[in-house]
């Protein structure tokens, strides 16, 4: 049988906008963006026969990348809390997040992924690098998240957070979930190996994570020295600081993703930089948890930005991070967020084997955001950073494209009905919160060792 001829799909042209081709170094042009077969085909005049979409008075930017997220926190807004207020970071984990993750089941994991993914896309975030934990629903949890995000049209990099805090059986199950999911990449889905943090990982478990990452040729996504308790525990148990322990276990590689790195010392900074690992700063989360500022806030190189579960809004995250950095050092330049957002895109591009991801150069994946932004002042490469910091917001998002498909249209999801999603989520949230209220604080406490 002769196959039917493939239908010819005309290219799409986004016409009349100012286009940010790249963030760092900034490159801005006035051109039509021509998209074909999921990629940027050209920048210039729309060709004859193209489907034209009017973007006059708009700014087109590469889709943002959230380089460290916890989608499972998406149903936590306003959640009940009846325990004594936490007095330090360990108690925040014991009394809030390690209670919430133990209450997650399949339906709440799915609802959290849909809600968190939808909010991210509506804010112009096209790629989510997620770090998941649900110790009472491990096997298959990453499939649920992948299917939810793919259904929305988001690009994602997923992993399961391996930890010993819930016992050896769950540690093994978490490692097996990473192993299983590594074998099932999708068009918009990739995976890393996940681990919680040094202070909840035995040598055996950490070595297992590093070995799996090495076998698969991917990085380990792990929290590093978010609080000083991580450093004190590593010194007490292993006689070395966290980054030294990670290096000893073959975790520090050019593919590693290290979240936070707030309490690392200068020697650790140097070893992390020498390894070429990517550090993800999460400014709003660090402020919320009062853990301090990462020394990587003041360094260039492989430093990206994430939200740590606060939201999927990278405009808000990058602006808050800039202001926090400038409060600490008046010499902080407005380019601060652009450099870090570009590095997050490079990280995602490395995972997807798409080196042009995060740019709008010909050949790049057509992951982009159309913003309603027609400023009264000039906008070019020389002052893009000033517009980004002082002018842009997620409220300006009009359309979002991922791999050339419009997944947000006129500020609404093109895939799902947001009102119906919210209606389905409310009873799921009520059941989740009911379990949360009945769940005591976690008893795992590294402070007793340090």
Helix content: 25-40%
Largest sheet strand order = 3-2-7-18-19-20-21
Strand content: 15-25%
Q: At the first level of CATH, what is the class of the largest domain?
A: Alpha Beta
Uncertain segments: none
> What general outline do the C-alpha atoms trace?
globular
Q: How far is the N terminus from the C terminus? A: 72 Å
- This entry's quaternary arrangement is single chain
Going by CATH, what is the homologous superfamily of the largest domain?
Answer: Metal-dependent hydrolases
**What is the radius of gyration?**
22 Å
Care to count the β-strands?
21
Number of domains: 2
Annotated CATH topology of the largest domain: TIM Barrel
Class by alpha and beta content = alpha/beta
Main sheet specs: 7 strands, mixed
Number of helices: 13
Q: How would you state the average pLDDT, rounded?
A: 96
- Which architecture name of the largest domain does CATH use? Alpha-Beta Barrel
